[in-house]
Amino acid sequence: MGEFASQRHVAQPVPRSSAPDGVHDRSEPFLAADVGGTHARIGLMVGTPAERHPVSVLHYHRYHCADWADLGSVLRDFMAQLPAAGYAELAARVRRCVVASAGVVLDDSIVNENLPWPVSIGALRELLKLAQLEVINDFEAVAWATQFLGMDETLPVIDTATSAPHGPVLVMGPGTGLGSAVLLPRAAGHAQVLPTEAGQIALAPGNEREVEILRVLARGRAYVSCEDVLSGPGLLNLYHALCELRGCPVSLMTPAEITGAALAGHDAAALETLQVFCGLLGSFTGDLAMLYGASGGVFLAGGILPQIHGFLRASSFAERYFNKGVMRAWLQKVPVRLIEHGQLGVIGAAGWFLEERQGERTMPPL
Asked: Which residues, 6+ apart, have CB-to-CB distance to 191 below 8 Å?
């Protein structure tokens, strides 16, 4: 039902807070959740005085969303684990939570068709008896966490000379959906993050084959977004379209089967699917790097890319990334690196909460 991951432990027991009501002491424990279409990652968090690592993960668990009726059930199960993990006293003090989720907040709900269940913010706050519940976009949280990444925690996709030290940083990637956010440096303190819905931009084919694919995908629908091809479900859409164009039967049923067959090299349709996927991703990444002036570099995240890192580097990704006319020379100075999602969403949501929302009782929209 879940998977334990490595945890970061504080060196000393967390002291009891003396902060007045309504103010969130950094030493007070709180929950951070990173909720996607496939997995929900939950952490018991506490702030630290360290500038480089401002939050610590005391306890962490990853859940498969399809196994649970709603997000409230997931969070209640996590809270029930804490006494057995040695955190009974801290569990009794949890009164605040931050949720990183794909989509946007409209009134009392998190709106995103990729989530497996509806999420009511008010109902969740009441169920868990919380004084404060904040919501942040999932890629906004991942982007916030990247300011604490070391180079040894990333993998190269496109190597360049050193990036601009204070330039905007683009964070994007395909998973159940296609997320993106931009990290904007500040003169002092931690950076500001701009969440985006760039995955909903209209798909722009870059060659005749992609025009043919778009014709197939556009049949029966008024709009084809980049997320419709650059995501797990998008990989399936590409594969089905290419099977039709190649006149071959559909034999693979999941994104994992498609990537596995492509990497093994024994299915021509799967191989072309992954090649087209990487080419479109390179083109889209270059577009967003230009749009946001990402001179500080690009981080690719999401659940798909770590599994195909070698294939991605050998694909047309870089060629399509640079193929931007007069902007090629500028893009050649913007590095692209791959990050494992892991606990980044939980850490980023928690850090953002302490930096931007601590002590607030209201729920401002994203």
From this structure: 144, 147, 169, 183, 184, 185
Task: Put residue 86 in one of left, alpha, beta given phi > 0 → left and psi -120 to 50 → alpha.
Answer: left
- Greatest C-alpha distance within the chain: 69
Q: pLDDT tens digit string along 20-61?
A: 444 456 678 999 999 887 888 999 999 987 767 788 899 999
The amino acid at residue 72 is G
Question: Sheet containing 109-111: which strands, arranged edge to edge?
Answer: 104-106, 109-111, 119-120
CA dihedral of residues 85, 115, 178, 64 (deg, nearest 10): 40
Burial 228-240 (b: 16+ CB within 10 A, else e): bbbbbbbbbbbbb
Cα torsion angle, 175, 179, 185, 186, sign: negative
Structure tokens at 283: 């083109």
Distance CA 131, CA 31 (A): 12
Give the percent of the chain with pLDDT over 90: 58
